[in-house]
Amino acid sequence: MGDRPYVLLSCAMSVDGYIDDAAPERLRLSSAADFDRVDAVRASCDAILVGAGTVRADDPKLLIRSQARRERRASRGLPPDLTKVTLTWSGDLDPGARFFTTGESPKLVYAPSGTAAELAGRLDGLGEVVDAGEPLELAAVLADLSARGVRRLMVEGGGAVHTLFLTSGVVDELQLVVAPFFVGDPSAPRFVRSGVFPQSPERPMRLAEITRIGDLALLRYLAGSERG
Q1: How many domains are there within the chain?
Q2: Which Pfam families match (predicted)?
Q3: 90 lies in which domain range?
Q4: Mean pLDDT of all residues in the chain?
Q5: 193/54 Cα distance (integer angstroms)
Q6: Which residues of the chain form beta strands (DSSP E)?
Q7: Euclidean distance between CA atoms 155 and 11, whole angstroms
Q8: SS3 label, residue 162
Q9: What whole-number distance in Å separates Cα of residue 76 and Cα of residue 84?
Q10: Which CATH number characterizes residue 170's domain?
Q11: Structural domain includes residue 227
Q12: CA angle (122 as vertex; 138, 115 as ends), nearest 5
């Protein structure tokens, strides 16, 4: 795969493209069956990436839930859990977040040069802070992950990270789950933000699979990369 991993972007959204509402509680867009499917996809990857905003808002563990899948990974000589990765521009990360306090696999934090040193001192060994340039360069992040042996990277959000990866043209596969309802709140976060995307009417993604999961629809797209 050259100097970057295969990138699989995973997201659940409402019919009108929202990934949450504006309420304090997290909006449930998926189902138990789909959570299990996502867990299986996680187990097929080497690392999982979310933005610092998702770490702050959702406090995710980013672990593989199924013990059987963890054991199968271990039997293949792989760590039971994925390497956790986050991107931060401001360095605003809580050392007590479950991103850092759960799981035994490495935790990698990519930050701009002006933020990295202070953040490394504040995290105090809970995760490895990597200087990703000034400003932060996604190509440097992906090259560093590849050098660490990451061959498949799962990206789980949020909207700013989805937009960054898609507009940068580095997404090989998009797994998009559509929930059967609307949110309709312009203050709520959406799947992507404004941007210039390489996938366009002239260069569309290829729909590789449609799967019904109860009343949810899973759309699996190959995003047009010649490498994918």
Answers
A1: 1
A2: RibD_C (PF01872)
A3: 6-222
A4: 95
A5: 15
A6: 6-14, 47-51, 83-87, 107-111, 128-131, 152-155, 173-179, 206-213, 216-222
A7: 9
A8: helix
A9: 19
A10: 3.40.430.10
A11: no
A12: 35
Average pLDDT value for residue range 145-174: 97
Q: Which residues contact 72 (CB under 8 A, 6 or more apart)?
A: 43
Token pair, residue 221, equals 């797209």
Total-model pTM = 0.95
**Residues constituting the chain:** 228
pLDDT tens per residue, range 80-92: 999 999 999 999 9
List, for residues 180-215, the tens digit of each pLDDT value.
Answer: 999 999 999 999 999 999 999 999 999 999 999 999
Within a 10 A sphere around the Cβ of 124, how many other Cβ atoms? 8
Of the candidates 7, 34, 29, the residue with the CA atom closest to the CA atom of residue 218: 34
User: CA of 96: how far to CAs of 31, 93, 122, 167, in Å?
Assistant: 28, 9, 11, 32
| Domain-located, residue 1 | no
Does any domain span residue 228? no
